[in-house]
Each structure stands twice: as structure tokens, then as C-alpha cells.
Design brief:
By secondary structure, this protein is an alpha+beta fold. About 30% of the residues lie in helices and about 35% in strands.
Length: about 150
């Protein structure tokens, strides 16, 4: 390959545990793995608000706000310039959403590996409950049909 030629396309970035993410869709995908978080909102390096909550929605719309109230987080990736992904001192992932002098730090309170196992068992339990309800309803209909004189 000649040094004079510039490649037509560069490979997509590969970020593992630490780095800066500027693509809004990549930010949205990263945050979609979060549910319960400890959040720290800072302005000019000073903590403004801090608490715990559940992420209920992650979206990308330049006309809507990021909202945090009543332990619920609605995060608009358009509210931030980039995400700084790093790790806390104990090795936990830390998601820092940055916009000028504002930072919204999200520290996960649950582990997606454990959550996945829980959701899978909950899905099986929910499926069993639905099957039981359907069978019960079918039996009720059959009993009603048996009681009907017509």
C-alpha cells in the first residue's frame, strides 16, 4: 500500500471498558444495558444532585429533555456531547454523560449477567402462569358448557 493513498473507510472504533463514545446510537446501546443506577449530576465539577433510580427510557430526540424525577430516569442522548466510559476504583463500569460543564455519572446497581438469569427464570415462571390461566379458563368453559341444557 502506498503512503500517498488514504483508505476509503476507517475501521469502526472498538472500545473495551474505557474510552470516549461520541456516536449517539452507540451511547444509546451502551446505556440500554442499565436499569438501576446511582446517578451523580455535577455542574462545573461540583455535585448538584445525587440519588438512585431506574432508567425507564433511553431515546434520541433533539426536541425533548433528559428528565430525572421520582427515582425515574428518562435519558435523551441528544442532551450530551459524548459518553466517557471508565471504571470505578473497585472495577465497576461507570458511564459519564458529558455536555460542556455538565456531567451525569451513572453507576450501575445491578449486573446485566445476573439480571439476564433473573429475567430468563421470570419469563419461564410467567409462561407457566399464563399456561395455567389458559387451561383454567378452558376448563371453566367446558364446565359451563356441560351445565348448559341446550
Amino acid at each position: 500500500m502506498s503512503h500517498d493513498k488514504i483508505p476509503q473507510s476507517l475501521p469502526a472504533p472498538c472500545i473495551i471498558d474505557t474510552g470516549l463514545v461520541i456516536n449517539k446510537e452507540d451511547i444509546r446501546r451502551l446505556l440500554s444495558s442499565l436499569h438501576r443506577v446511582h446517578y451523580i449530576h455535577s455542574l462545573d465539577g461540583q455535585v448538584d444532585h445525587e440519588g438512585e433510580g431506574c432508567i425507564l427510557e433511553i431515546f434520541s430526540d433533539p426536541k425533548q429533555s433528559t428528565l430525572i424525577a421520582n427515582h425515574a430516569l428518562y435519558i435523551n442522548v441528544q442532551s450530551f456531547d459524548y459518553l466517557h466510559l471508565n471504571q470505578t476504583a473497585n472495577g465497576e463500569s461507570c458511564f459519564n454523560l458529558i455536555q460542556d460543564n455538565r456531567q451525569l455519572r451513572l453507576i450501575p446497581l445491578d449486573n446485566p449477567l445476573h439480571e439476564r438469569d433473573t429475567h430468563q427464570s421470570l419469563d419461564v415462571d410467567a409462561l407457566e402462569a399464563m399456561v395455567t390461566q389458559v387451561l383454567s379458563a378452558k376448563w371453566d368453559v367446558q364446565i359451563d358448557d356441560d351445565d348448559c341444557p341446550f
